[in-house]
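Re: export button greyed out
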Amino acid sequence: MSKLPSLKNLSYLLALHQHQNFNRAAQACNVSQSTLSSGIQNLEEQLGCQLIERDHKSFLFTGMGEEVVEQARRILTSTEELLYFAQSQGKIMEGPLRLGCIPTIAPFLVGPLTKQLQVDYPKLQLNIREDTTDNLLHLLRNGELDVLVLALPVDLQGNQSYVLGRDPFKLVMHQSMADNLHEPVQYNQLPDNSIFLLEKEHCLTGHAVAACELADSTKINPFTATSLHSLVQMADARLGATFIPQMAIDRGILNGTDLVALQPTGQQASREIGLVYRPTTNRRQTFRRLAEFIAQLLPEPLLK
Amino acid sequence: MSKLPSLKNLSYLLALHQHQNFNRAAQACNVSQSTLSSGIQNLEEQLGCQLIERDHKSFLFTGMGEEVVEQARRILTSTEELLYFAQSQGKIMEGPLRLGCIPTIAPFLVGPLTKQLQVDYPKLQLNIREDTTDNLLHLLRNGELDVLVLALPVDLQGNQSYVLGRDPFKLVMHQSMADNLHEPVQYNQLPDNSIFLLEKEHCLTGHAVAACELADSTKINPFTATSLHSLVQMADARLGATFIPQMAIDRGILNGTDLVALQPTGQQASREIGLVYRPTTNRRQTFRRLAEFIAQLLPEPLLK
DNA sequence: AACCTTAATTAGTATTTCCGATTATAGTAA
DNA sequence: TTACTATAATCGGAAATACTAATTAAGGTT
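Workaround output, generated via the alternate export path:
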């Protein structure tokens, strides 16, 4: 059996991949350029394959090199987690925690969450990143985030999750449009192009359409918004109706508008909120506790 | 940020855990006892916590030590996989492949599988281990196996799977017992205690009962068998009926008996066969190919 | 042509890792 | 008691390795 590559050399490779430059990568690793250079060569020899194509002046990662980078990242992440785990034994709610959250949840969750965490677990340093589901999953895989709050169902790509609770959808429109409607609202009572949704990058769009059984796409206006706040503005301007999650309404997104929230059609007109983490994590206890904590902040908690 | 523990020291810890003796562990690692001893101490210092309790003459892993062993195993497995992956680039169907299979599948799959693999991929060294679902999943987690063939559904414990196909259940009994029955067989036509099953360790028992909708447990004889071949013997001795998967029948398990195979009740009276692998694997291509390959050997392939 | 940037190479130095021998301790046999 | 065995820790020196600074080589820029 050949010798295993060293973590050090793997980290050199990662740095090189990140900086795409030997000198800057070496600086980032606090070693000289020659050290990093020979480290990479060493690695190539041990692995028995070329990782970067050299071109005298510049270089390019080979396909193989990219693959190795991916896997090396996972290995280093696991090792860092092991180190962190051992060093902070017994203190599951202390230290840094990097949480990712989608834009249709974050603005309505982060406030109460950080506030309450500060009280219950003052030593927990919560670091929040807001991004789309796809990007967050990518950051989770790469070890740049520890845990995500997503709307389910979604392809977890091998990750694991706790279901935290449900967040009902409401059909929101100007009160002048709601007079002759009764709940649950049948969509055929609405004019064509009268329902506004978010850009397709937001999973809320798909979830709302599915959960509220909005089969008739002629009702959907092709113009898309980039945030729930925009949607609210548009509805308040009497452009049409839209779906808004209960969480956002509870946090007062409709305050100061003339909008009303009606019950839409749909057996279970709601989305599920879940906490997602790597299957290889060693912080399940932390995530479990956090899950119970967040669940209590949701309109319909399912956990504990 | 503190320095990462070295893979070497982690492997020393694993060896010590396995052999529970410094000298033997050191031998297994091809290093001296002093090297291993100081390696472990080094590790404890880096991780900032005690991994083993020393007792002058002997020692004991602490709870923390056991945890670290678990995680170290994963890290080392990943690294070995990375090494193997790089060294055998492009040759997805070559080299060693350690496959685990449950006892109610193995005897009927392994023969044709190895025979056909030998023809199509002669450089693949298939290594087969037969054990219960639980044990196989444990070995998969520990990196002692690469891939499993299991009957689904089963708690995959964070692993991933390809569904290969279905394997129908047949109700097997002596032909003299089958005369006044018609298919699909209603179980109330059978006497109490007349259905024999395997020990509960075998997932086949649960799968058969569920798939064949055998709700009335008074029909089940409390005496359990340890293999399908025993069940066949018992049925042939006119002790009662039993469920046998089609795979086994196709491979001639009923040859030389006076047994008949009848269609049992049940919407879909069959079990699913799946190929299970770690979510962190880098051999998906290999497993995919293998999955397609095995699927073709099943009674009802679902793949490709 | 002179100069800058880039990565590889080289040779010498510093650090780390490893081993063999020894020590310390406890259990066991004479 | 007194050897004897087995265990893990410790220590000093040797071997392996990792690292650096300086240099080289080659392409791009002024």
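Chain A has two domains: 7-86, 94-303. The button fix ships in the next patch.
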